């Protein structure tokens, strides 16, 4: 794939020969600046979505390898005060399985300059915690929901928990964690009908639907090009039922291409991570639950900040290692290249 196809300029990388900067924004050799930090709080989950986890689950990270709240707190402080991170999104695994989540959110929210704090969750348990999370400083949630049909939902997630997710969504709306977004990864068999019902449901409830193309990040490495539904398939399925027109607002670094529905009664976003990669506008850096920095979802190398933390490294050393990790970010994910290698870690262990 060419750089142009990735949305990157087809020019050389004038910065490539230089070492990573020691101050300023968190930049890579293509000039992209990371301001959005995705933090995976745990690799554990209470669902088993087919495109993410095997039915039997995975070998979870041993407890002593997972960052302790004070370690995480230190890394978040470095990210915000030294590296220019303005947005933090907690994810997992399932972040609501973390007992001290409210404390972690409150801690991050107290940083200056105050970052915007969001969470991606499957919504199970959110009904009980949405108020407390909002009070702690959480501002927005994305709740993953792939079908509003209970049987389809159970087939996709291998758990009969649709009611819990819907209750979580409603609680998020009541708690003001909005705009509440719904993330959907469509099943190749039922997705074409699921997406129509999902959009109707989201329009009725005032949630913003974002449909994400399935990516090769499943633990079983069973993703096959040609089987997963593409952004074009999604739009085709919706066109028969809704009038969609391109949203005129500039997209910036947002991964979703937005469409206005039926003349503006709502919007739907389609994230074409595979068929129309948007790596050229990527502004993300990632931290796994065991303290590894990843410069891309699809990176095959990681930088171990936990080891630095636990061997007495000072803030300068940790900042330097994080900068160096991001400096080495590749042009794009390479899914469409013949020599693409799927990362060892599945999505649940990276943090989507
Ligand atoms: N458990 C939480 C949830 O499901 O929202 C947070 C973690 S989950 C890994 C984050 C997001 O990644 C979810 O919206 C999920 O649908 C998405 N995801 C997981 N595996 C994926 C894959 N193979 N391709 C595309 N998206 C995926
Ligand atoms: Fe769990 Fe989220 Fe993966 Fe589903 S997508 S198995 S909810 S981590």
TrEMBL record:
<feature type="binding site">
    <location>
        <position position="93"/>
    </location>
    <ligand>
        <name>S-adenosyl-L-methionine</name>
    </ligand>
</feature>
<keyword id="KW-0547">Nucleotide-binding</keyword>
<keyword id="KW-0004">4Fe-4S</keyword>
<feature type="binding site">
    <location>
        <position position="89"/>
    </location>
    <ligand>
        <name>GTP</name>
    </ligand>
</feature>
<feature type="binding site">
    <location>
        <position position="45"/>
    </location>
    <ligand>
        <name>[4Fe-4S] cluster 1</name>
    </ligand>
</feature>
<comment type="similarity">
    <text>Belongs to the radical SAM superfamily. MoaA family.</text>
</comment>
<feature type="binding site">
    <location>
        <position position="144"/>
    </location>
    <ligand>
        <name>S-adenosyl-L-methionine</name>
    </ligand>
</feature>
<keyword id="KW-0949">S-adenosyl-L-methionine</keyword>
<feature type="binding site">
    <location>
        <position position="181"/>
    </location>
    <ligand>
        <name>GTP</name>
    </ligand>
</feature>
<keyword id="KW-0342">GTP-binding</keyword>
<dbReference type="InterPro" id="IPR000385">
    <property type="entry name" value="MoaA_NifB_PqqE_Fe-S-bd_CS"/>
</dbReference>
<feature type="domain" description="Radical SAM core">
    <location>
        <begin position="29"/>
        <end position="255"/>
    </location>
</feature>
<dbReference type="InterPro" id="IPR007197">
    <property type="entry name" value="rSAM"/>
</dbReference>
<feature type="binding site">
    <location>
        <position position="38"/>
    </location>
    <ligand>
        <name>GTP</name>
    </ligand>
</feature>
<feature type="binding site">
    <location>
        <position position="51"/>
    </location>
    <ligand>
        <name>S-adenosyl-L-methionine</name>
    </ligand>
</feature>
<comment type="pathway">
    <text>Cofactor biosynthesis; molybdopterin biosynthesis.</text>
</comment>
<feature type="binding site">
    <location>
        <position position="52"/>
    </location>
    <ligand>
        <name>[4Fe-4S] cluster 1</name>
    </ligand>
</feature>
<keyword id="KW-0501">Molybdenum cofactor biosynthesis</keyword>
<dbReference type="InterPro" id="IPR040064">
    <property type="entry name" value="MoaA-like"/>
</dbReference>
<dbReference type="InterPro" id="IPR010505">
    <property type="entry name" value="MoaA_twitch"/>
</dbReference>
<dbReference type="InterPro" id="IPR013483">
    <property type="entry name" value="MoaA"/>
</dbReference>
<feature type="binding site">
    <location>
        <position position="120"/>
    </location>
    <ligand>
        <name>GTP</name>
    </ligand>
</feature>
<feature type="binding site">
    <location>
        <begin position="284"/>
        <end position="286"/>
    </location>
    <ligand>
        <name>GTP</name>
    </ligand>
</feature>
<keyword id="KW-0456">Lyase</keyword>
<keyword id="KW-0479">Metal-binding</keyword>
<dbReference type="InterPro" id="IPR058240">
    <property type="entry name" value="rSAM_sf"/>
</dbReference>
<feature type="binding site">
    <location>
        <position position="279"/>
    </location>
    <ligand>
        <name>[4Fe-4S] cluster 2</name>
    </ligand>
</feature>
<dbReference type="Pfam" id="PF04055">
    <property type="entry name" value="Radical_SAM"/>
</dbReference>
<comment type="subunit">
    <text>Monomer and homodimer.</text>
</comment>
<dbReference type="InterPro" id="IPR006638">
    <property type="entry name" value="Elp3/MiaA/NifB-like_rSAM"/>
</dbReference>
<dbReference type="InterPro" id="IPR013785">
    <property type="entry name" value="Aldolase_TIM"/>
</dbReference>
<feature type="binding site">
    <location>
        <position position="49"/>
    </location>
    <ligand>
        <name>[4Fe-4S] cluster 1</name>
    </ligand>
</feature>
<feature type="binding site">
    <location>
        <position position="296"/>
    </location>
    <ligand>
        <name>[4Fe-4S] cluster 2</name>
    </ligand>
</feature>
<keyword id="KW-0408">Iron</keyword>
<dbReference type="Pfam" id="PF06463">
    <property type="entry name" value="Mob_synth_C"/>
</dbReference>
<protein>
    <recommendedName>
        <fullName>GTP 3',8-cyclase</fullName>
        <ecNumber>4.1.99.22</ecNumber>
    </recommendedName>
</protein>
<feature type="binding site">
    <location>
        <position position="215"/>
    </location>
    <ligand>
        <name>S-adenosyl-L-methionine</name>
    </ligand>
</feature>
<dbReference type="InterPro" id="IPR050105">
    <property type="entry name" value="MoCo_biosynth_MoaA/MoaC"/>
</dbReference>
<comment type="function">
    <text>Catalyzes the cyclization of GTP to (8S)-3',8-cyclo-7,8-dihydroguanosine 5'-triphosphate.</text>
</comment>
<feature type="binding site">
    <location>
        <position position="282"/>
    </location>
    <ligand>
        <name>[4Fe-4S] cluster 2</name>
    </ligand>
</feature>
<keyword id="KW-0411">Iron-sulfur</keyword>
